[in-house]
Amino acid sequence: MQHYPYFVPAAAVMFLTGVGIPVLASMNGALGRSLGSPVAATAVVFVVGAAISLAVLGWAGVPGAASFAAAPRWSYFAALFMVFYLLSITFLGPRIGIGNAVFFVLLGQLVAATVIDHFGLFGAVRFEASAQRLAGVAVMAVGVYLAKRT
Predict the structure, then answer these.
(1) For the chain, how many structural domains are there in total?
(2) Cα 138 vs. chain centroid, distance in angstroms?
């Protein structure tokens, strides 16, 4: 499982990222209600996020033009998934409950991550979807369901 030398710190960062998903959903849902527009709330997140990202990019250093030209064209469309996620969670989270919304997001993540890893899609490291792994994903899905079930 530990193919990365700093696996434990990386896992901790990803755990905190996971903590941020329902926090983001709750905060942006509240902003969408206050503004009367989930789309405006989503735009605010992207404007603030772009400003922060550009500041960090300026500090970290901008890659050369050749790097941008060499990147796979399809990789630039990742932003579409982020916009879809943020619009969906901002609009639907407050309506169906943040827990329910995040449950379905997690379920989708489990399925998509297993497929991406199994086939090594988008340049991902390939991890076979063995019977043991599929059983683990199923147990995780049931666990997420049971944790959310009222």
Answers:
(1) 1
(2) 20
